[in-house]
Every structure is written in C-alpha cells, then in structure tokens.
Amino acid sequence: MFPDFTNYLVLVEKIFGIVGSLIYLIFALVIVKQVNTMTRNVRDKFNGILIVFSYIHLVVAILLVFLAWIIL
Question: What keyword terms does UniProt attach to this protein (predicted)?
Fold first, then answer.
C-alpha cells in the first residue's frame, strides 16, 4: 500500500544503526582516555591489563562502525 513509506523506514533504521555505532565509538574513546588518566594517577599491577582491554575495546568499536557502514 505504501511502498515508499517502508523504504523510508529502512533508511531511518540504517541511519540509527550507523549513528548508534558512532556514539559507541565515542564512548570507547572516552574509556581509553579515562583508563590512561587513571593509570597515570593510580599505581597498580593491573594497569597494563586495563590498558590492553581498553584498546581492544576501541578496536572492536572501530570494527563495529565499519561493519555497520558496510552491512547497512
């Protein structure tokens, strides 16, 4: 009945997916910045592990943005 309406909904869904993944990338960048700030101020034996996990999280967030861009 409304074929153009469904096309607009699919387009809106794709835009929400890409914007959501970009917001998640910004969140991952904030986590990396906070972990780096914390490791400068707090000395602990687990700082290296936290840094590694924060950068892995950032890489996964970047991959999510690329996948959302390609798939959607």
Answer: Membrane, Transmembrane, Transmembrane helix
Query: Domain coordinates of the chain in residue numbers?
Result: 26-72
Give pLDDT tens digits along the chain (72 positions).
566 888 889 999 999 999 999 999 999 999 999 999 999 999 999 999 999 999 999 999 999 999 999 998
Tokens matching residue 20: 């959501």
CA–CA distances in Å: residue 8 to residues 20, 39, 54 = 18, 47, 37
Question: Widest CA span of the chain, in angstroms?
Answer: 64
All residues at 6 or more sequence positions from 13 whose CB lies less than 8 Å from its CB, including other chains: 72
23 contacts: CB under 8 Å, gap ≥ 6: none
